[in-house]
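thread from #wetlab-drylab

HS: before we spend reagent money on co-crystallization trials with cytidine-5'-triphosphate, can we at least see a predicted complex? here's what I'd submit
DV: go for it
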Amino acid sequence: MIAAAVLVAAGSGERLGADLPKAFIEVAGRTLLEHAAMRFADHPEVRDLIVVAPESHRDEAAKLAPSATVVAGGVTRQQSVSAGLAALADDVELVLVHDVARAFVPAEVISRVIAALADAAAVIPVVPVTDTIRRSDPATGELHETVDRSRLSAVQTPQGFRRVELIAAHDGAPADATDDASLIEARGGKVLGVAGDVRAFKITYPLDLKLAEVIAHD
Ligand code: CTP
Ligand code: MG
């Protein structure tokens, strides 16, 4: 099956608070976009690479990921994913949607997701939740019960999809829909979980860059 990766990098990285979009921040001498793109470009089972960049940084993205097709993203992540899907080659059968913010995803996770697509329309990498989690009311700050952690999974990327099912799910979806896997599920498709990896964590806050630096030198 021919696979393509859509790397979404069009966010602004507000929570990181830097003066440039998150994908263009450097860790260990390379931008997050380069770290992420490398991992997919080097993967033997991924043929095509599509990078969804901020409109202002399209040329920059094309320089950093020379083997990729670069398109401009949208206001929401969902819109950015849609822009990436529109650039897929006709013969692509499997699509991996990946957050460039998860720049250090190990190759094994990519392989596991692709392998599991033999049995499901959608595959998501998951890791156990380590924090104790309570339901709460964001409006009042009131705390409710603790949720049983053993019944929760944190979802990472790349999330893998059979192309036809993902396109169909996107076509009917609102622009601010939750994640792609939920869209598939809403249409009755099967979503399979595979083991993620802590190294595929999402770089969100400045402190996360320190962990990224450690992983990059590992
Ligand atoms: N993303 C995107 N287009 C958007 C919003 C997000 O391509 N309109 C991408 C980001 O570039 C990132 C991934 O989706 O790789 C996950 O989003 P997040 O970690 O929230 O990144 P940002 O939206 O850039 O960060 P923040 O929410 O702090 O602004
Ligand atoms: Mg965001």
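DV: The chain has seven helices and twelve strands.
HS: ok that's useful, forwarding to the group
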